[in-house]
Amino acid sequence: MNDAADKKDFLFDELRTLTQKVNETEGIPEILADRLKQMIQRLDRMANLGHYATEYDTLARYIGIVTSIPWVKKTEDRMDLQITKQILDEHHYGMEYVKERILEYMSTLILLKKRGKEVLQRAPILLLVGLQGVGKTTLAMSIAEALQRKFVRIAMGGIGSTLEIRGRSKAFPESEPGLIIKALINAGVKNPVILLDEIEKASGEAGLQSDIMAVLLEILDPAQNVAFRDHYIDFPVDLSEVMFICSANNLGPISTALLDRMEVIKMPSYSDAEKMVIARDYILPKVIENSGLKPEELIIDPNLWPGIIRPFGYDSGIRSLTRTLESICRKVAREIVEGKVDKVYLTADNLKHYLPK
After folding, report:
1. Which residues, in sequence order, are CB contacts of 283 under 8 Å at separation 6+?
2. Are the C-beta atoms of 102 and 143 separated by less than 8 Å?
3. Considering the entire predicted model, what is its pTM?
4. In terms of residue numbers, what domain contains 257?
5. Given pLDDT bands bounded at 50, 70 and 90, which one contains residue 1?
């Protein structure tokens, strides 16, 4: 009997929490709030009768998710071209053409905002195209940092159904909202920068790929995304203030209708000279710090960089270069911990020992 009473108390406590969430969720549409209150009344009847059915969990979870969506909360944009340039230069060496394109894009946003026009509704979607490791994700993060917006990355590779993007109806067991609504909830604001990463890899099946491209078109098109309907939420959600940025390794599988709404920026591969500066001035200091080392505990002979940059042949990006430096730092860290050395000076004689096998 006590167990039944405890369970009932728990249900009523949960109902009070859900009611408070509905009442305190800022900007939730009135129609949707009324729907949630009706659900709470239904849950209340279940609790009074001592019923604890699967439906109780389903409705309680739905209310919790809907009240987690940032309906009105947002960050204020920082529209400053000088700061944007500074951030791009700080995080990205070289790539002058790409930076110029980004600054031109930001300039149009600044002008539109100054003149009281809808900013993102008039601006095309940025599509960063380039091989793996050339900096597409970090460039999108830099744009978010420049604008002082929250950043969320959605990995599009291997998506097996449009339901992963736009959710599954709550009528189904284990249903949940799609990736877009989850991204908004994770960001906690209605105007984050959302990177749709590697959109050309969304599906390997031709028919399914065209379906996914159609859903992406609805999400990215300003005329349609003002009332995006996720199957789980089953209520229009305004995505018009989200800044979507897309990335791809190639343009092949992307539909023409989608490309028409995009500003394509091609990311060049890094030259060896650029990689040397990136490795020495950008990557190495971070890798040393993340490995627990002090800067003076690993000194690299300047003449060794060509051998570090190309230990295994050609690589267009900098990911394998980062992994090489991480491997070197881990070996140095181990030798210091084991008391074998106080610091390491990397020369042509000992480089092979520290490079990853």
Report:
1. 318, 321, 322, 325
2. yes
3. 0.80
4. 81-266
5. very low
240-271 residue pLDDT tens: 889 999 998 888 778 888 888 888 888 877 77
Please check whether residues 156 and 240 belong to one and the same domain.
Answer: yes
Instruction: Of 166, 157, 184, 176, give the one whose Cα is nearest residue 246.
Output: 157
Average pLDDT in the 145-152 region? 93
Contact in structure between 29 and 67 (CB atoms under 8 Å): no
Contact (Cβ atoms closer than 8 angstroms) between residue 355 and residue 308: yes
Supply the pLDDT for residue 313. 47
**The pair of three-digit structure tokens given for residue 131, joined into one six-digit string:** 């091989």
**Alpha-carbon distance 35 to 40, whole Å?**
9
The predicted-structure confidence for 283-306, as pLDDT tens digits, reads as follows 899 999 999 999 899 999 888 888
pLDDT of residue 305: 85
Encode burial over 114-149: b for 16+ CB neighbours within 10 A, e otherwise: eeeeebbeebebbbbbbeebbbbbebbbbbbbbbeb
Instruction: Give, as one character, the DSSP assignment of residue 285.
Output: H
Total domains present in the chain? 3
Residues 95 and 238 in one domain: yes
Burial (CB count within 10 angstroms: exposed 0-12, middle 13-18, buried 19+), residue 267:
buried
Q: How far apart are CA 245 and CA 266, in angstroms?
A: 13
261 shares a domain with 284? no
| CA–CA gap between residue 36 and residue 175 (Å, rounded) | 18
Residue 75 lies in a domain: no
Please name the residue ranges forming H helices in the chain: 2-24, 30-49, 54-66, 81-91, 96-114, 119-122, 136-147, 163-166, 179-187, 206-220, 256-259, 272-277, 284-290, 305-309, 319-337, 351-354
Q: Is residue 349 part of a domain?
A: yes
Higher-confidence residue of 243 and 119: namely: 243
